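tool_call predict_complex ligand=flavin-adenine dinucleotide
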Amino acid sequence: MIQHFDLITIGGGSGGVAASRRAAVHGARVAVIEKAHFGGTCVHRGCIPKKLLMYASQFQNGFDLAGAFGWSVGPAQFSMSDWQDAKTAELLRLESIYRDMLQNAKVEIIRGAAEVISAKRVRVGDRELSCDRLLIATGGRPAMTAFPGLDQVLTSDDILNLRTVPKRFAVIGAGYIGMEFASMFAKLGSDVSVFSRGQHPLKGFDQDLRIRISQALEQAGLQLFFHAAIESVVQTKEGYMLRLQDGQSMPFDVILNATGRVPNTDHLGLEKIGLNLTPDAAISVNSYSETQVPDVYAIGDVTNRKNLTPVAIAEGRAFADTVFGGLDTPFHHDQVATAVFTDPAIGTVGLTEAQAIERGATVIYASQFRPMATTFAKRKEYSYIKLVVDAQTDQVLGIHMLGPDAPEIIQSLAVSLRANVTKRQFDQTVAVHPTVAEEFVLMHEPVRRIPA
Ligand SMILES: Cc1cc2nc3c(=O)[nH]c(=O)nc-3n(C[C@H](O)[C@H](O)[C@H](O)COP(=O)(O)OP(=O)(O)OC[C@H]3O[C@@H](n4cnc5c(N)ncnc54)[C@H](O)[C@@H]3O)c2cc1C
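tool_result ok
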């Protein structure tokens, strides 16, 4: 007998789990199908293990600074193998929490790779299921095709499973994933080189942050190769040889492919229901996550809108609230705060300066300063903060920061942006002293007005 559900979700990652649980709370009978591990990319190959590696790498800063504050610290050593064992145990713990959350919500858990037979039928192994509504939340995976040999190097999935820190480490691609691993492995002791086609890292971020993160990482000893045209990568006995189109060849022990990610839309049977894909193979949806096929929805990285965990979760909940909760909830992707866990870190929300200028007259407030702790240790490290303000209304349109705790600080400031904060309200806010964040309420003179 074919089992019937109000909702079948394909993919038990951040988005799929959140949508399924919320639909069940609204009274729907839900099944979620997962072919690997509940929790998906974020828990097993993304945000969580990456942040655990970032924590490991940050200890280096503490050791470096300790002497200036009166401590004597002996030689410190990092065992990636010990970290790896502890990380694996932690991820198993988190996966069981995800499973429990689904079970407690009375969502049926089905293991296996799902294939769509029709808009209302799904096959998993030799089992067939039917539903009133189908939600596709299958996420994405690393892209492998930019040039010959790229499929032989490591992806972020593999990097997070290393048991030793590579000596000569190259990163191809300067998006946030590439820059984060570059920065972390430099702190862990690797000689790091980053190769990117562009002029600056972190395409899409505010230009002032992009320039300053390059400067900071170069100052920390990373080699950044911009406008780099890679011809191929060849595996050698010692590791890899990276060949550039200008004839240069460079040897590395480990190379990370951080050239981007592609949505998981193949091997799903989507062609059987005539689903529209975008040119980059993502499922095309509207602000309600509806595809053009009635009763078929898609959320998260498979739609390639803003590929972040909290976004996948918010899209999933908005879908469930609209379809099963009777609450009209479109989801808009503006004003989503995001972080880059480099050292120094980045936090950003709202419009970049360039985006604001496209909309109209803009005023920029910015400040660059040396944080107290590193100044005390006589290190030349700078923090940078910036407010992008609408010249007509005084509304703050964008908030950007590079420096210690930027991700934590930007989360709080994102609330004020969401509430349409004005620059005057920043000025009226009393500082918390002595902090880095107080600089945000102490910038009284603009650095430029556009137009002047
Ligand atoms: C290295 C890295 C670092 C990241 N860091 C951050 C960060 O710091 N902050 C942040 O917000 N985001 C981060 N992200 C992005 C974040 O992980 C994703 O945006 C998020 O996981 C997307 O959730 P999702 O539900 O769309 O997909 P996923 O979490 O990828 O889940 C999709 C699930 O579908 C399953 N699946 C696929 N096909 C099938 C099938 N046919 N049948 C059954 N199951 C199937 C997969 O096994 C997977 O479990 C990072 C990503 C990476 C790779």
